[in-house]
User: What shape does this take?
Amino acid sequence: MLQDEGVEFEYRDYKKNPLTEPEIRGLLERLGVAPGEVLRRRDRAFRELGLTGEEAEDRLIAFMAEHPTLLERPIGIVGDRAVVGRPPARLLTLAAE
Assistant: This one.
């Protein structure tokens, strides 16, 4: 979709190169949300870890760094702004601004 719209982007494979805890913290700041708001509750790791989404922020961030599939995706970042691409067309809002 981004290519079709002529938007340049860099893809990061979250499984091969997961975000670190400091990167997750910076991402949450750009998104303006708490960790529980971008937690994939239907993810297998969510069930296996017995998470509720009500855990302390530091704990959720640590789990997201250890289990990258817990973090909602895709996420687009431009400078100090970020959006979760759900629906994917939301990513285009970053290119429009």
